[in-house]
Design brief:
single chain; about 250 residues; 2,3-Dihydroxybiphenyl 1,2-Dioxygenase, domain 1; 2 domains; 8-stranded mixed sheet
């Protein structure tokens, strides 16, 4: 079984972070620096994956870093393998050979030590979105997470894609699911499709759906919002930036 570990998006500069904090979101303490001049901030939740908010500080360095299968500035989805063991990646590497898988390891700290193991795909699992598998050496790192938000948001419950359901076939295969039988779910997260080219946005991951206790903290105070529906319930759509997914808030 795969779970969604985190979902990342680009374009989250200081102005974007200030907006999110003003709306009652609490960020994880600290800022992480990643290869390619990427500053990474995180939103953690009681349920579902974390959201990784990336700011690129040197475009030339970043574009030199971009690995095979990744579209520059595109969003990404990390799928964590069952029990997190690196040996679990072997079967996926074999079964998805047509997607040209390759592995990377990033130590938690210090060369040669335990770390994260990534199975990337040079042929994208879903065009325009970097989908990869993650496994972790034991002992796993302990992360100080902030999961309580003043706006009552509990967590990520859905992802919205501007594509056909059939285009999610590789994602479904990775998750051991079948397209068409029911709404596609990966690790408890519902994957929704709105059809190719629908909505605004440069990349096909259009929105992250968040579950909140109520919508009172949004709408009246959030900029660039409009009413919509998500998972059959009323929702508020919060625009972020042209490089990233929007946030859809629902109860």
């Amino acid at each position: 079984m795969l779970t969604v570990g985190n979902v990342y998006g680009h374009g989250f500069d200081s102005g974007q972070i200030t907006m999110l904090e003003a709306l009652g979101f609490a960020l994880r303490p600290g800022v992480s620096a990643y290869a390619g001049s990427q500053l990474c901030r995180f939103l953690d939740f009681e349920i579902g994956p974390s959201l990784e908010l990336i700011e690129v500080t040197d475009n030339s360095d970043y574009e030199s870093f971009v690995p095979p299968g990744m579209e520059p500035y595109g969003p990404g989805i990390s799928l964590v393998v069952e029990d997190g063991s690196p040996s679990r990646l072997d079967g996926y590497e074999r079964d998805f050979a047509s997607l040209e898988p390759y592995r990377l390891k990033v130590p938690y700290q210090g060369a040669g030590g335990p770390g994260w193991h990534y199975l990337n795909f040079a042929e994208p699992v879903l065009p325009g979105i970097f989908v990869w598998l993650t496994a972790l050496d034991a002992p796993k790192p302990v992360v100080a997470r902030t999961t309580a938000h003043a706006n009552g948001v509990r967590g990520v419950v859905g992802l919205v894609f501007a594509c056909t359901e059939e285009e999610l076939e590789n994602v479904a295969r990775l998750a051991g699911e079948t397209i068409g039988r029911r709404p596609l779910r990966v690790g408890g997260i519902t994957l929704l499709t709105t059809g190719p080219g629908s909505g605004s946005g440069r990349f096909p991951l259009r929105a992250v759906v968040l579950r909140a206790d109520s919508l009172d903290a949004f709408g009246a105070t959030a900029p660039s919002t409009e009413a919509t529906r998500a998972l059959g319930r009323p929702a508020v759509r919060l625009e972020t930036n042209p490089l990233s997914w929007d946030l859809w808030l629902t109860t």
